[in-house]
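Progress narrative, Year 2. Work on Tubulin-like protein CetZ from Haloplanus vescus advanced from sequence curation to structure prediction during this period.
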Amino acid sequence: MKLAMIGFGQAGGKIVDKFLEYDQRTGSEIVRAAVAVNTAKADLMGLEHIPQDQRVLIGQSRVKGHGVGADNELGAEVAEEDIGEVQGAIDGIPVHEVDAFLIVAGLGGGTGSGGAPVLAKHLKRIYTEPVYGLGILPGSDEGGIYTLNAARSFQTLVNEVDNLLVFDNDAWRQTGESVQSGYDEINEEIVKRFGILFGAGEVREGQEVAESVVDSSEIINTLSGGGVSTVGYARESVERKQESGGLLSRFTGSDESIEDQLDSANTTNRITSLVRKAALGRLTLPCEIDGTERALLVMAGPSAYLNRKGIERGRKWLEEQTGSMEVRGGDYPLNSSDFVASAILLSGVTNVPRIKELQQVAIEAQDNINEIREESESNLQNLVEDDEDELESLF
Ligand code: GDP
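Result:
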């Protein structure tokens, strides 16, 4: 499907930039338009793929291009004040050609954390297209203020978007790596997973269109109903086969040779095993999949390696695991790829211990900050004034 992506803040901008690079590399054509919004000039200058005229610096009169310093209340205020400038960039997007908006932001900082919910509310008021969020949760080692920012932004953003897709940095943290190279790898993982998912709904010219191909309406329907979503992914390398072999095994039906039948059993088994790996492996937001409201299974790869039986079995298995009867499935033919991948969108997840933990730590951080603020004045008074009050201020 075609998206208008808006990266808010540093993480948001970098990830949208990466989506553009992915689009150019794979020809997936999911980014119809890309905009970056920030209060920090340097962050906007660091982007590589987003066009210069689609980079919007907000809050100049308040923070002079230096960012909001992880203050997400200020981030929200500045976004509200300068929403006209963001709209100016969006006015340049042919919105009739996009299927949805996707606002991407790190929820632990200031600009994206505060600005993303403001922008979501604004877009929902103006456009009929769905507005989705891709929210990045901070690592638990980032500290209390980031956790508090994320918990407050998460709560606000869920209510403003049509669906909040979540990626948890904490679950993907690599030990012993520099923060930057760690983020590079994490950002690759993000665009790979969401790229396959959103790419599935985009039929390209010259692409074989089978009946079972996922359509963007299936992605939209899986996301509609709102709430929080997570994505599972698994892939396996395969040798490239002749395209005609794929077509042959699809259409030969009962006249299949033994060789073809074995092949088809292998294909089916590979698909079902990839579905299990994707659902039971690391999700973008780790959670219990039982209780998921809706799901979508996308099988990507050369057509010769995709079959309806495998996808149907995988879909049924997902129905059992999630307890939901609203599980869609289909394929995403990628005839020049050397892998078969399974991407699973679990939409409307509710049993997410990580969110509860985040909220708990956020409340502790909030209490601590309030306590220190309350005592701050009297502590300072005690420090600066002499015990017997013998000294006098100058004025
Ligand atoms: P902002 O510019 O004020 O919105 O804040 P940042 O985007 O710099 O940081 C917000 C949060 O996003 C941080 O606390 C990190 O958890 C996360 N973050 C920052 N940069 C990246 C990145 O490149 N990739 C990912 N996945 N997360 C990032």
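The longest strand covers residues 228-237. The two ends are 67 Å apart (CA to CA).
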